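Morning, I've got a small favour to ask if you have a moment. It would help a lot if you went through both lines with me. Thanks so much in advance, here it is.

***
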Amino acid sequence: MIANYHTHTPRCKHAVGDEKEYVEQAIEGGLKILGFSDHVPIPFEGSYRSPVRMDVSELESYVDAVLAVKKEYAREIEIHLGFEVEYHPRYIDAQLSLFKPYPIEFFLLGQHFPADEEEGPYSGFLTRSDEVLKTYVRTCKTAMETGLFTYFAHPDLIYYEGDEALYEREMRSLCACAKAAGMPLEINLLGIEDGRNYPKEAFWRIAGETGCAAVLGSDAHRPGNVYREDAIRAGEALAERNGLPILETVPLIRPEKARTQG
């Protein structure tokens, strides 16, 4: 593993450690590329304030901090500035306008809420609702078709324990969309470390049969997550069992370029 594009900061309210600590852990692990992709700020309407992402007021400090370590460590590691983004149609244009003054290099798609954070539920909460599953897949497919995203983080986050045949159909549809869009799918190493409901073997079997490509993502919420040999080996084994090629690096899609082209 020479690149990790999935790295958070304490601004998301559930991570620890400063930017330098993440960078130094990446260098120690032998990474050549580190992407910061903290949970995207959303200019919510009304008084809602998210407990799981930075506020809009913290955007500038995040950009400044990442650009500072990018410059400081330029001789040791390649650093990129990005976000892990929820795709919500009613906010995406406002977000793109918000980011326009800043040199954002990439977005990761991370759909933590099937439709809208304010309405919920969290995608990783256990559900047997067919509609929650269908909404998650529908939203993710719409997002991938925009061309805004470099890759899809933890695509198997949705914690559905209902009709297995429905899950199979919906995930085949999602993976077919990813394949058509040329969208790599992330094997989430934090999920492996923490024993979460993802990565899910059934999903990755479908992804392999569909011909999708995988990328390993640390999803680092503390510096020690950036490079974990045991999690990397488990992720590689998952990909091998299911016939998925692992991409060492991915070409970054700048949001403004993708929006202009598509």
Remarks:
- Residues 29 and 227 are 6 Å apart (CA to CA).
- The two ends are 31 Å apart (CA to CA).
- DSSP finds nine helices and seven strands in the chain.
